[in-house]
Design goal:
single chain, 111 residues, alpha+beta, four-stranded antiparallel sheet, 33% helix, elongated
Length: 111
């Protein structure tokens, strides 16, 4: 059949392919969550993308081992600035979405 080295390489290739596919699915879910949160808060979701900040194994409420990914993104409240937000995904579920602290609209900014 297959020599052990070829079987190991094939298994590694399949694992990396699965990781890539799963990461693309999680990233799409993170982009959708960030876009929806920005729209709900009347913010501009900048660059229409998220960037991976961390990746680690974690367990869900059922004890199943999944990959937890943290993504960073940028948004603007005025169109003239960039602020950072983040979204943490466990598998393809949003755990935390953070738009950071922003001053209320009634506060005058001096800078």
């Amino acid at each position: 059949m297959f020599p052990p080295a070829e079987l190991l390489l094939f298994t590694l290739f399949l694992a990396l392919t699965w990781l890539w596919w799963d990461s693309m699915q999680a990233r799409e879910a993170a982009v959708a969550a960030a876009r929806t949160a920005c729209e709900a808060e009347d913010l501009q979701f900048l660059d229409d993308t998220v960037g991976i900040a961390s990746l680690r194994p974690a367990r869900n409420a059922d004890g199943r081992l999944l990959l937890q990914r943290a993504y960073d993104f940028e948004f603007s409240d005025t169109g003239d600035n960039r602020m950072k937000g983040s979204v943490v995904m466990l598998g393809r579920r949003v755990l935390v979405l953070n738009l950071g602290l922003r001053p209320p609209a009634s506060v005058t900014r001096i800078h």
